[in-house]
Amino acid sequence: MRHWFSDLTAFQRDPLAFLLERGNSATEPLVPMALGPAPMFLVTDPEIIKPLLKADEGEIDKGRLIHKLRSVVGVSSLTMSGDEYVRRREVLHKYMAKGSVERLTAPMSAEVRAVGARIAKNRSFSPHGALAPLALKMACIALFGRQVLSAADEQTIVAAVRLVEDDLADELFRVVPLMPWESYRRKKRREFARKAMSLVVRRVRDRAHDASVLRALESLGLSDEDLSNEILTMLLTGHHTTGSVAAWLVYHLSTEPGLADAVADEAASITDWSGEIPADRLKNAPISLALVREVLRLYPSAWWFSRETKRDIEFGGRKLRRGTSLIIAPWQLHRDPRHWDEPEKFRLDRSYGNRAYLPFGLGPRACVGMGLAMLELQLIALEFASAYSFGQVTPCPAPRPTPSVTLIPPDMQIEIRIREPARLHASVA
Predict the structure, then answer these.
(1) CA distance 377 to 394
(2) pLDDT for 52 beyond 90
(3) Helix orientation angle between 286-298 and 224-255, rounded to the nearest 10 degrees
(4) pLDDT tens column, 236-270
(5) What angle is formed at CA 408 by the lines to CA 404 and CA 410, rounded to 5 degrees?
């Protein structure tokens, strides 16, 4: 007999497997999930996702699950809605759109090469450990200017995220209250992490360039707290989401036969006389772009997001009462055999015009950092493949990621060595 908590044990045991089992066998667009007293549905029909995300905010909007993130990032563009969200989003989009960030291809590539040189000295590296700070630094170049974060600042952000992410992931779907002592311990951890991150935010504000997104946000008349929340949101999303995907990108460069050589040749074909990859030549690099898109399909860092009904409505063939959560799970949609051939396999011959492909969301609420993330990932693929060869990966095959607030790659070690000179500039343009 089903009750409010019928699915809770299975979900807590393995959320990723639960979503695949429930979503891939769905026969209706909205599948009920019994995870507590509040009604919740998994959205399994990609045809209704765009209308859902474009719905009037008086009917469907960000709700309690997204608002729980405020305990870390406060009230920011990630967790707010309405006219103020639109106002801030317009500024953020101006600095993170593809056309805006491509002018920074050279300094971003330089950071990739610097990180590659450091990790190559050790003969092996942890892809997530090395590439999450790199993604953070590349995002800072685009948003605030070069040399804004020190190595200590990067380590502080990474350590602070690790301190609170598992607690927050647990609380997002928790229906049974924590014991008072555990609640107190978590509160203290969060306060400590928030204070540590606030010190980094303060230094970013002091060092940001005059033409940075920070100065544009200041022109909106935001309070000091609002500005700090926006900076913190950009730092955390810039580090954790792109960094996690980058780890899987290098994993597949290391494990797919011939892929690293093909991307190295592609990098050589678009590199100019000075050794740089001009932004306008990235469109002539289809292999690296397909690699990025396929890794985003298999490992979307935002493995789920949600909306909540603000009044009683009819949607997806159901009558939904106020306060109903609608869960959209790219992890499930990207691995549904009804929408993809061999969904569990890594393949570069796919088309990504599929409505079930949404690693950055969809419509007016799509991730504002999409252009920046795509550029970062393609540059990492091209620069790493052109300079290095990869050896043994441990463990291989890698286990599935851990579903926290984002998808966290497993601990891995990848052997790395400098690529043979004969392959470095095989066909320099």
Answers:
(1) 22
(2) yes
(3) 110
(4) 887 778 999 999 999 999 999 999 999 999 999 99
(5) 130
| Residue of 333, 251, 346, 235 lying closest to 294 (CA atoms) | 346
- Residue 249, both tokens: 């990108």
DSSP-derived pairing of the beta strands 402-403 and 388-394 = unpaired
pLDDT band at 1 (very low <50, low <70, confident <90, very high): low
- Under CATH, what is the fold of the domain 69-302+359-423? Cytochrome p450 (1.10.630)
Residues 6 or more apart in contact with residue 79 via CB below 8 angstroms = 62, 66, 67, 69, 70, 73
Highest mean pLDDT among 94-98, 146-150, 228-232, 297-301: 297-301
Query: Do the bridges between strand 313-315 and strand 388-394 make them parallel or antiparallel, or are there none, so unpaired?
Result: unpaired
Higher-confidence position of 255 and 153: 255
Q: Taking the complete model, does pTM exceed 0.85, yes or no? A: yes
- Give the angle 191-193-198 at the CA atoms, nearest 5°: 95
Length in residues, the chain: 429
Q: How confident is the model at residue 188 (pLDDT cuts 50, 70, 90)?
A: very high
* Per-domain boundaries in the chain: 69-302+359-423
Six token digits for residue 301: 């860092």
